[in-house]
Specification:
With 249 residues, the protein is an alpha/beta fold. It has one domain (3-238): Alpha-Beta Complex (Spore Coat Polysaccharide Biosynthesis Protein SpsA, Chain A). The chain has seven helices and ten strands. Strands 3-2-1-4-8-6-9-7 form an eight-stranded mixed sheet, sandwiched between helices. The protein has a two-stranded antiparallel ribbon with strand order 5-10. Strand 1 (20-26), helix 2 (30-43) and strand 2 (49-55) form a beta-alpha-beta unit. The protein is globular. The termini are close together.
Length: 249
Amino acid sequence: MTDQEKQYFEQNVNEDDGRIDLITTTYYRWELTEKCLDYLFGRTLTFGYRLTVVDNGSKDETVKNLMSLKQGGYIENLILLDRNYGLEFARNIALKLTHSEYCVFFDNDLLCPDLTPDWLSQQLALIKRYPEFDVIALRPQIAVGADNSKFNTDKEVVENNHVGATFMMFKTAKLKEVGWDNEFSNRAADLRLEQKGLKMGWARDIYCQHIWGKNWSYPEAVEHFHREIYPPPEHYDNIKVDPKTLKPL
């Protein structure tokens, strides 16, 4: 990396300017991604954020449309992978570009809620109010892997060892300590995070919604987790990013 490239990287990527990093991963399914981002842009108004999108090798219109959003200033960091390396691999790459105190990971088939002040401000206030939690996610319309009766409580944050990918707000430094493991599903990744000491929970009163409906059957619900290869965990440590294109080298 040249001195000029290093300076660019430090000025444009490594700087914590007070915004929160929002991160999603795409793989085909542009019709869902478009709805997800439309809601995000229209309903995230009262707090600054920086959007990073990692595409896992889509070969359809997804890449062209994401590049258009990047050129329009809607996406700050766009990383285009050459193939589908899997969800956790893509998240680890994005994590290397994340330097804010808090970051939010979400799947591209989710709608953020319509709240005033907006969801991001409310979620940030919640994680600051309950510092014992390392991860607080928004509540989905269906709590996968949990009994919905959990939410019949006076607690604003409902502790659970699986919070899916429903706008999960992390303490960035804590997440960087453990990273994302190379697992197939969100649930497996969550269980690993719990084993590594992260305390997780759902926001009782801040809802989000999956937009592909209520069909939780496999494979329809998780087709976007499919991958072609399984990079070993140690490969994450060798990821380098081109400071001009923000693509992995």
